[in-house]
Amino acid sequence: MDQAGNIRKIIHIDMDAFYASVEQHDQPELKGKPVVVGGKGDRGVIAAASYEARKFGVRSAMSSKVAIRKCPNLIFVRPRFDRYKEISNQIRNIFFEYTDLVEPLSLDEAYLDVTYAKKGKPSATLIAQQIKKQILDETGLTASAGVSYNKFLAKVASDVNKPNGIFVVTPDQAQDFIDNLEVKKFYGIGKVTAEKLNKMGIWFGRDLKKADRLELIRMFGKAGNYYYEICRGEDHREVEPSRERKSIGAEDTFSADLYREEELEAELLKIADKVWERAGRSQVKAKTLTLKFKYADFEQHTRSKTLEPFYHSKNVFVDESIKLLRVEGGFPKGIRLLGLTLSNFMQEEPPKEAVQLVIEF
I need a surface site. Which of 62, 259, 331, 339 has the fewest CB within 10 A? Predict the structure, then answer.
């Protein structure tokens, strides 16, 4: 529960085979094929595997040699971490539309506390469904979601119906769900610990629940107390936003390359609408506008314009966006992607004089 005594509504969003899915999205000829991101050399390691590759037993952290033995037709793609971070930021912007309580765990997953959501219906399940749809619409990628009243259950739930799934654990369902969950699937219990628990005769949550708290602490230290609580559905950790938001943006990858200026401007207006709406929801005042465009051959460029004191109206924002687009003077190679970002936010100035606070009793 939160400080007001309300049951928390926690969502865990986990992108599906994120790095590999980005590569399949950006290179449509790779769709439906066993793709891995990583090096192919003798010392190569798999960073991510598509679901088509996983069917052959290929997994992340596996050596490339072993992966090739399992799947001789494996397609290797070099990682592009700048691209993954770019899309991760785009997805995070979607999260911020619903809540400021976003705790990223990595580029491809995050916790969201939507107990007091900024928009949408007061249902964490419906919000999770909307976020999944929005991610798909804006990035072409799928995500899985877990919904529950604490971080542990939301994290475990997001893995139940992968890929592109959603699973909800309500307070009434929680204990039965945990009782029948294998301890090796508990978030926070690794392979070595799971094997140790198995040797103790503990295979499922219901078995773990029979263990004495002090005995678990003696054997596993502080983690033992965590195990004692999570098998009872207790996890009091709050979603902790760890980073200050530094930009707001949106982009679109087109199904066919665009060449004509009027077509590009029409698409740019749609993107500008999304960005300005997001900026309004977040109540930020941005000084810098950046236009990004990517040619059909994947060559990428950016153009920026900074205004003082900040972009104060949508008309100015849109006008400057179009000006940045027209600077290029034509796109003979065709454009496959357009994006706009607002950044360099104004910092609120602290009051010059101390203010006496009056507390009413």
Answer: 259
DSSP 326-340: HTT---TT-EEEEEE
What would the two tokens of residue 304 be?
A: 């920026």
Which residues are known binding-site members for Mg(2+)?
Answer: 14, 108
Detail the residues annotated as belonging to a binding site.
14, 108
H or E stretch covering 126: helix 124-139
Q: Is 206 a domain residue?
A: yes
CATH number of domain containing 103: 3.30.70.270
Residue 304's domain spans which residues?
A: 247-345
Regarding beta strands 10-15 and 143-148, do their DSSP bridges make them parallel or antiparallel, or are they unpaired? Answer: antiparallel
pTM of the model: 0.70
Q: Which are the catalytic amino acids? A: 109
In tens, the pLDDT along 241-277 reads 865 667 888 888 887 889 988 999 999 999 999 899 8
